[in-house]
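Renewal narrative, Specific Aim 1. Our central claim is that a sequence can be written position by position from structural information alone. The example that follows is taken directly from our test logs and has not been curated for this report. It begins with the structure tokens describing the chain, in the order in which they were read.
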């Protein structure tokens, strides 16, 4: 009975949150334009790519340019394509089975190259020399942006056999990252690497009880989970534990964060660094009275060193930030979904929350990927097997929706990560509220980066700082537009 009641509560929270996600028509994509929703076990067997039976793959070796090898020690390695055997880890085994399944379906073989970094440097060399080395490529968003505007990547909309409307492709990505009605980078169920980079807030449930803090899950359900509520709660939990009159990494804080919280927080509040016009071309739309209000709300919190500890500003590694949260010395902890996996060792229960809304009139949540490390799928410009490539990409996406997405969603996040039913409802909302801000991702004139630098410097003057980069940002964006308009399929 207790379990049934708990499940009913989670369902009610999920329903109320989903109801709150209807688009307000002004601050982001339509409510229906969400990333492909994770599927339950009962739903996860019916997806298949539409490949004509007569198409002959001819035993082709499909070559993938991916991320660093999983054994490289690089945290941002290839989580999706490189596993060559089952090891007992449920997620990597699911990725392995997906690859073998597609090989069997299509009668092909996969060959995966693992470069030393995820920016596409080695891929660029093969393209510059016209050495057809790879059929599909995996590069971080900013690397993809750089290569695409230099005509190194294929317009994915020109691949007739690639079904971009299919449910295994993230439709927000398809819409948000097109330029001049062309698309050069893509993601969706084909991989889980980008999901690990989605920004979230973790909270210490015992500390929330100890300091009699209002239930953030209840606020999430009613739509009152806002910056102001978040700030008030964070201020209630800080303390100088050793009473030495100063705050350092031995004390307790209301918030432990990294500087990219500011960009994520602004996007979550409906700010658009760049918006596309009717011609599907980007225009800078960052600065407004609302932008300044959001900035002031967040920096009044971030710059209060008796309440917040910034591990980027203090030059501390991520391991130190994890330890502070695990040791019950931070009520809130800003990080990304990958942190959920790392915190399994934490004895105190923790919860998972979306990034707060600006205010209660905002009708939905927004979340974004990390443009430095998230994996994006692309096709090198020299690819001359486009029909085959489109079919293989769709087969990988469809089979991933059957195998890989459920493994990550149900096993990695919910079963092994989430510790309560309300967190499961929160995970649903976060994964289904992605938005891809072209300014944050392309970073023309540092427009996607300058707020992070300001927060690490403790700089409060947003207007002055933005004015210094605005002309360069517009000039670089205009040059990119000129380059894209000159590209022919």
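The sequence written for that structure reads:
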């Amino acid at each position: 009975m207790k379990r049934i009641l708990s499940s009913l509560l989670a369902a009610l929270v999920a329903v109320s949150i989903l109801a709150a996600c209807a688009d307000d028509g002004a601050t982001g994509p339509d409510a229906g334009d969400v990333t492909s929703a994770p599927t339950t076990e009962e739903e996860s067997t019916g997806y298949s790519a539409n490949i004509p039976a007569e198409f002959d793959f001819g035993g082709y070796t499909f070559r993938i340019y991916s991320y660093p090898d999983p054994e490289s020690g690089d945290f941002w390695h290839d989580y999706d394509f490189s596993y060559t055997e089952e090891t007992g880890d449920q997620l990597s085994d699911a990725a392995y089975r997906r690859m073998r399944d597609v090989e069997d379906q299509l009668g092909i073989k996969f060959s995966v190259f693992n470069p030393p970094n995820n920016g596409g440097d080695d891929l660029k060399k093969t393209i510059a020399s016209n050495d057809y080395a790879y059929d599909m490529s995996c590069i971080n968003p900013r690397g993809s942006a750089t290569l695409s505007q230099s005509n190194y990547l294929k317009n994915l909309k020109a691949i007739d056999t690639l079904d971009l409307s299919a449910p295994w492709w993230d439709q927000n990505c398809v819409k948000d990252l097109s330029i001049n009605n062309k698309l050069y980078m893509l993601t969706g169920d084909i991989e889980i690497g980008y999901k690990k980079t989605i920004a979230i807030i973790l909270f210490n449930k015992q500390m929330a009880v100890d300091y009699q803090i209002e239930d953030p899950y209840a606020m999430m359900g009613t739509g009152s989970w806002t910056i102001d509520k978040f700030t008030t709660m964070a201020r209630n939990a800080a303390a100088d534990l050793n009473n030495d009159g100063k705050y350092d990494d031995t004390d307790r804080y209301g918030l432990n964060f990294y500087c990219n919280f500011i960009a994520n927080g602004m996007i979550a509040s409906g700010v658009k660094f760049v918006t596309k016009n009717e011609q599907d071309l980007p225009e800078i739309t960052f600065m407004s009275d609302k932008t300044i209000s959001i900035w002031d709300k967040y920096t009044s919190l971030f710059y209060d060193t008796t309440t917040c500890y910034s591990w980027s500003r203090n030059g501390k590694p991520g391991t130190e930030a994890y330890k502070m949260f695990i040791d019950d010395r931070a009520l809130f902890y800003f990080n990304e979904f990958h942190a959920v996996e790392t915190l399994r060792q934490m004895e105190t229960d923790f919860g998972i929350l979306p990034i707060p809304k600006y205010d209660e009139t905002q009708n939905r949540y927004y979340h974004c990927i990390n443009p430095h490390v998230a994996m994006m799928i692309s096709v090198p410009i020299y690819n001359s097997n486009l029909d085959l490539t489109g079919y293989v990409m769709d087969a990988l996406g469809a089979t991933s929706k059957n195998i890989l997405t459920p493994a990550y969603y149900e096993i990695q996040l919910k079963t092994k990560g989430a510790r309560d039913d309300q967190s499961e409802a929160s995970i649903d909302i976060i994964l289904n509220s992605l938005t891809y801000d072209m300014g944050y991702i392309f970073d023309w004139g540092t427009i996607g980066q300058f707020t992070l630098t300001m927060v690490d410097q403790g700089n409060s003057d947003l207007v002055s700082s933005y004015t210094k980069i605005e002309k360069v940002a517009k000039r670089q964006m205009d040059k990119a537009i000129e380059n894209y308009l000159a590209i022919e399929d």
